[in-house]
Design a protein that fits this description.
It comes from Knipowitschia caucasica. It is found in: Late endosome membrane; Lysosome membrane. Probably part of the adaptor protein complex 5 (AP-5) a tetramer composed of AP5B1, AP5M1, AP5S1 and AP5Z1. It is a peripheral membrane protein. The protein has three domains: 171 residues, Beta-Lactamase (2-Layer Sandwich); 137 residues, Mu homology domain, subdomain B (Immunoglobulin-like), CATH 2.60.40; 115 residues, Mu homology domain, subdomain B (Immunoglobulin-like). Helices cover 14% and strands 37% of the residues. Strand 12 and strand 13 form a beta hairpin.
């Protein structure tokens, strides 16, 4: 539910009417245009809206007690949802224009209706109507003191705060909350500091303990064939995610990524729009030409003014020489049985400490497994007959030799067929690895806690972490066919 426009009108005892505040949300208006199609009616200028609204409420032209579009018998008003007729044509109508009035103020808004308006749906079925009325009631309580009365200076002060209030409770036209009832005009909850202007993408200000959390995650994919005529493929994709709880309208934070002397340079770097400046050589490093001698090796500094919600500061790719786990897999049909053997070897550069590590061996387009005689040199094996799946649970460590193996025979002849897959038939099969390694990245990239700089009034606590995860990590049977990916794998 979103708001296309909002108006606040004051009406004094002398029947003088003035528009005290108006706000339009262009992104919501664009959505209204797409949803409305030929029936779309644009929001006119403020003076036109004011005149139409006063006419509909019967507060203008006191000599004209009868207005045809408002007072004829065919018009069935459904308060508080008003119709504003922009022209005699039926389609040029703004509906539903929600209006509440109390004391000297009239508050009105035009919510976005994402349901067909012909025929008019019941107001009780439109979430946008109830949300819009809730927003108007909250703004009414914010602008007026208890009893609906306020002094002109107090009202002017609260109207001046309204742009900042809307950034917090209705960012980009979508109501998230309502103001605290009866909040004083001197409240500093949403007022910007100094002469800094609150940016449109920042929906409020943080109040409380300052903390900055930076999480670096690298994801590795691999396609290993065990075939000299098929090239193994792997790629690494990294993301840096931040959550900054820092006081101030535009606080400054700098996160620095560093590489070890033998680390792989970061490439294809993309940054969040809140990053204020970045070295051009960082952004021009791409993985298209891996032999480029002008590769940037860091440090990679990203100064930014953060939003309140968690966000992805940057992403990158990295070309590492070898995948973390090398594997081989062979299947053979022997005497109505399937003989399987597999070997997994953890590369010496990878820390032998996992959060979890599992190898899944599925068997498609066969009858259900009947007899399973498979042994593993390390870890444990779970047999899922319904899914024709072997789960090799390696656990949190490889063996001391960093090499483990699986071997045995499987018979298929169960009472029901197993799962089907058009890609994997005959000896076309694979092992799929699932693992996560804490405090490790293949590129060697890291975020040191002391390299995170926060320029704010309060000292912030810094939390950093990094981890390596697998995604689409396959080891194909070397004795059967396998799909071949042409070119570089793209995440």
């Amino acid at each position: 539910m979103s708001i296309r426009a909002l108006w606040i009108i004051s009406l004094d005892k002398a029947e003088n009417v003035s528009l005290r505040f108006s706000k339009r949300f262009s992104t919501v208006e664009h959505r209204a245009k797409l949803l409305g199609g030929k029936a779309y009616a644009p929001v006119p200028d403020e003076d036109v809206v004011l005149q139409l609204l006063m006419t509909e409420l019967g507060l203008s032209d006191p000599e004209k007690s009868y207005v045809p579009l408002r007072d004829n018998c065919s018009h069935c008003p459904r308060s508080p949802a008003l119709e504003l007729h922009l022209s005699p044509r039926e389609r040029d109508t703004l509906w539903p224009v929600l209006t509440v009035s109390q004391g000297p103020l009239i508050l009105s808004c035009l919510p976005l209706v994402d349901a067909p308006t012909k025929p008019r749906p019941p107001l009780s079925s439109l979430l946008s109507v109830s949300k819009g009325l809730t927003l108007l009631s909250g703004l009414q309580a914010f602008l007026l003191s208890s009893g609906g009365k306020t002094d002109p200076e107090g009202l002017a002060s609260r109207l001046a705060l309204l742009p900042s209030v809307l950034l917090q409770i209705c960012p980009l036209g979508t109501p998230l909350d309502v103001p605290i009832l009866g909040s004083p005009a001197t409240s500093a909850a949403v007022t910007p500091a100094g002469n800094q202007k609150q940016p449109a993408w920042k929906t409020g200000l943080h109040r409380g303990r300052a903390a900055v959390t930076v999480a670096l995650t690298e994801v590795v994919r691999s396609m290993q064939y065990g075939n000299p005529y098929k090239q193994d493929l792997w790629d690494v994709y990294g993301t840096v995610t931040c959550k900054c709880e820092v006081e101030g309208v535009l606080p400054n934070v700098t996160v620095t990524l560093t590489l070890p002397p033998n680390g792989s340079p970061l490439q294809d770097i993309l940054v969040h729009p809140c990053v204020t400046s970045v070295d051009s050589s960082i952004l021009t490093a791409t993985s298209v030409d891996g032999s480029d001698s002008s590769a940037f090796w860091g440090p990679y500094k990203f100064p930014f003014s953060p939003p309140l919600e968690p966000f992805r500061l940057c992403s990158y790719t990295s070309q590492v020489p070898v995948p973390p786990i090398l594997g081989s897999y062979q299947l053979k049909n022997e005497d109505d049985c399937l003989h399987i053997s597999a070997t997994l070897k953890l590369h010496e550069s990878v820390k032998n400490s996992f959060e979890y590590c599992e190898a899944h061996l599925p068997f498609f387009n066969r009858d259900q497994m009947s007899a399973v005689d498979v042994r593993v040199s390390y870890g444990q094996l779970d047999v899922n007959r319904e899914k024709n799946l072997l789960v090799w649970i390696i656990g949190q460590k490889f063996s001391k030799s960093r090499e483990i193996s699986l071997e045995g025979k499987i018979s298929f002849g169960g009472p029901v067929p197993g799962p089907r897959d058009p890609m994997c038939s005959g000896l076309t099969s694979y092992i799929k690895l699932y693992f996560k390694v804490p405090d490790l990245t293949l590129s060697g990239c890291s975020v040191d806690q002391h390299s995170v700089q926060v320029y704010s009034t309060a000292k912030a606590k810094i939390f950093t972490s990094r981890e390596l995860q697998s995604k689409e990590y396959f080891i194909w049977n070397s004795t059967g066919s396998a799909p071949v990916s042409s070119g570089q794998m793209i995440l």
